[in-house]
Every structure is written in structure tokens, then in C-alpha cells.
Specification:
The complex is a heterodimer of chains A (119) and B (109).
Chain A lengths: L2 E5 L2 E3 L5 E8 L7 E7 L5 E7 L6 E3 L7 E6 L4 E6 L8 E8 L8 E2 L3 E5 L2
Parallel strand pairs in A: 2-11
Antiparallel strand pairs in A: 1-3, 3-8, 4-5, 4-9, 5-6, 7-8, 9-10, 9-11
Chain B lengths: L8 E4 L5 E6 L11 E6 L6 E4 L13 E6 L2 E6 L8 E8 L4 E3 L3 E5 L1
Parallel strand pairs in B: 1-9
Antiparallel strand pairs in B: 2-6, 3-4, 3-7, 5-6, 7-8, 7-9
Classes of the chains: A mainly beta (119), B mainly beta (109).
Amino acid sequence: EVQLVESGGGLVKPGGSLRLSCAASGFTFSSYSMNWVRQAPGKGLEWVSSISSSSSYIYYADSVKGRFTISRDNAKNSLYLQMNSLRAEDTAVYYCARGPARPDYFDYWGQGTLVTVSS
Amino acid sequence: QSALTQPASVSGSPGQSITISCTGTSSDVGSYNLVSWYQQHPGKAPKLMIYEGSKRPSGVSNRFSGSKSGNTASLTISGLQAEDEADYYCCSYAGRNVVFGGGTKLTVL
């Protein structure tokens, strides 16, 4: 059974940093692209970032480019999102999602971890 | 990276069919047949319902179907059931990024 479990969310002050993790199991992690998608409270889904299976391509949404860094450790079946210079508008539930070689769809999602940016 | 345009809400009675539209541009929906659709119930993670325009993942009811014409993709749900009441999001690959629609709330009357 495919499982994706996010962790690392919490309350952080504006300008602060946070590192999210996503532990994957039930599939060959190194064969899939991995992605972060977020959802602000009461709002819609917003794609954040994608990383290919071998980390050869990495994409970011304009809203996070230069502040967030996606990475993965295939030996540990883990995906990460380093978030720096956090802003109030980054407050959201962050989902980890699996994708095919090209990030055109997301077939399995974690339950999400809440990040709150507030003073 | 502008969001795809979806109607805010649609509704239908049990047994009826509804269609949700998703309008993008020639840079996303119009350039790639790579639109996906997600169902999200309150407090739950999204669930993939349609991918690559019209393909259904294993386990998704054949009451759900997808199509595309030009810059607009559509999700049709036939034989509406109470459990179909949820938020629906379209999503398109757009080269070096991905763009979602704003979401449509489906109410089953």
C-alpha cells in the first residue's frame, strides 16, 4: 500500500524557516517524481514544487522561487521542502504527492502538514 | 502561472449528469493533453479522478469522464450520487510548472 506521511509543520514567525519531510513507503520511491502542493485555509490547491526521480529536474512556483528548496533522499525514501523567509501567505496545509516521470498528475497524496506563519 | 478558470459552484440532482469546465490558455491546457482532475471532501486529501485528459485510475467509477477542446477541459459526472458532493479541481502541466484551477464546489441536491 502506497503511503506518504508528512511531518515538520508548525507555527513559525514571519521571516523564519521550517523544513518539511515526507516519508514514503509501499512503492519504489526512486522511480517516481515527487511534489509539494499546498492549500491555504479555505482556499484552493496550489502547486509548489516538483523534483524528478533522480533530482535531474526541479521546478518551483513563482510564489516560492528563491525561498523554498525541494530535495529528496532516495536511500531514505524521503522528500523534503526547506522553507526560508516565510511569509503570512505561506500559511497552508502542505501535501506531499507522488507523480509520474513528468509532473502532469499526482496519483497518491499524503494527509498534509499544517504550516502557520504568524507573529 | 495564472490559475485555470473553473465555475465556483455547480449542482445537480441524484441520477443527473453535470459538467465542470476548466479554461486555461495555449500555454497550458491548449498545449498539452495533460489535464488531471481531483476530488476533495472536507478535511481530506485530494483524490485523483482523471489524468492525461481522459484516463481513469484504477478504482475510479466510470461515471467520471474527462475531455478537452482547445483551451478548455471538462469533467463530466453521470448518474450523480450523494457521495459525489465535494470540491473538484482541475490541473494542467505547463512545461516547467503546473497550474491548478480555483476549484468547483459540487452540491448534490
